[in-house]
Design brief:
About 60% of the residues lie in helices and about 10% in strands. The protein folds into two domains: about 90 residues, Methyltransferase, Methionine Synthase (B12-binding Domains), Chain A, domain 1 (Orthogonal Bundle), CATH 1.10.1240; about 120 residues, Rossmann fold. It is built from ten helices and five strands; from the N terminus they run H-H-H-H-H-E-H-E-H-E-H-E-H-E-H. A five-stranded parallel β-sheet has the order 2-1-3-4-5, sandwiched between helices. With about 230 residues, it is of the alpha/beta class. Bound molecules: CO-5-methoxybenzimidazolylcobamide (B1M).
Length: about 230
């Protein structure tokens, strides 16, 4: 039996590992797309009184950054990244209710979705989870949303905030199409438009006349709260 096979046969006992070793293992298991293992590791850290937010950011988001880097560098390919995304989602499913469990009073409603042509949803899902945790009611439209989907959700739920996500340089311009449609409908000033996604920046948000660019989920929550305050004061 080779050294590698011997190593594979070694049983991993999470309870005997340090926190740092578990985080390292989570990075490896995310990379390999092992959803069940990720679930076990999330449970283990929660059992050690880790805050759900720390499990999310230090374990899952941190691990996904490694996947993202290797995807960019051509070391990982779409099927592997899909497996990693599935494992990440399995971990997020455990954390979602815990993050929402703050008992915070409802402070507003947000409609959020990934724009047309774009199927990336991990970042958007994180934003949804964090917004729910902060006390927002979140209507998540999912991926690949055209302008009509955004408009009919706004009609139906009357949100104070519209969130749009795009991960591709080819799909981010669609955000302008949605904002222009809000203007044409005469409802642009009734709603705060927050945008996010890896290829965006503040200059782009300003250019398409969004209210703000949010670098990450924590910034999205802070920004949404700030705009809710401004509304209440107006
Ligand atoms: Co895609 N992909 N992908 N991909 N993918 C990127 C985005 C890419 C940068 C990889 C690379 O080449 N380096 C690249 C885009 C290049 C570009 O446009 N310049 C790329 C490409 C090219 C593609 C395909 C075209 C590949 C192909 O088919 N040849 C294809 C496109 C499919 C499509 O959408 N039409 C594709 C497919 C996929 C998968 C399906 C395999 C998978 C998606 C699975 C899923 O989401 N369910 C995938 C993944 C996973 C990635 C990477 C590796 C990781 C994205 C991610 O989940 N990050 C990504 C590389 C990277 O970003 N480093 C890549 C983790 C997440 C937590 O971060 O999404 O940035 P992020 O979200 C953050 C913030 O941006 C912000 O908060 C979040 C949390 O902190 N945020 C918001 C995001 N949305 C927000 C909305 C808000 C506020 C904040 O509203 C208020």
């Amino acid at each position: 039996m080779s050294d590698e096979e011997l190593e594979d046969d070694e049983e991993i006992i999470l309870s005997e590992m340090s926190d740092e070793e578990i985080i390292e293992l989570m990075f490896d298991d995310l990379y390999d797309g092992y959803a069940e293992e990720i679930e076990e590791e999330v449970h283990e850290l929660l059992g050690r009184s880790w805050e759900p937010y720390d499990v999310l950011t230090k374990g899952l988001v941190g691990g996904m950054e490694v996947v993202g880097r290797d995807f960019r560098d051509g070391i990982l390919f779409v099927p592997e990244v899909l497996m990693a995304a599935k494992a990440m989602k399995a971990g997020m499913a455990i954390l979602r209710p815990l993050l929402a469990e703050t008992g915070a009073p409802k402070i507003g409603t947000m409609v959020i979705g990934t724009v047309k042509g774009d199927i990336h949803d991990i970042g958007k899902n994180l934003v949804s989870m964090m917004m729910e945790g902060a006390g927002f009611e979140v209507v998540d439209l999912g991926i690949n949303n055209d302008v009509d989907k955004y408009l009919s959700a706004i009609d139906e739920y009357n949100p104070e905030i519209l969130g749009m996500s795009a991960l591709l340089t080819t799909t981010m311009p669609y955000m302008r199409v949605v904002i222009d449609a809000l203007k044409t409908k005469g409802i642009r000033d009734d709603i705060t438009v927050l945008v996010g996604g890896a290829p965006l920046n503040e200059a782009f948000a300003e250019d398409i006349e969004a209210d703000a660019y949010c670098r990450d989920a924590a910034v999205a929550v802070e920004t949404a709260k700030k705009f809710m305050q401004i509304r209440q004061q107006a």
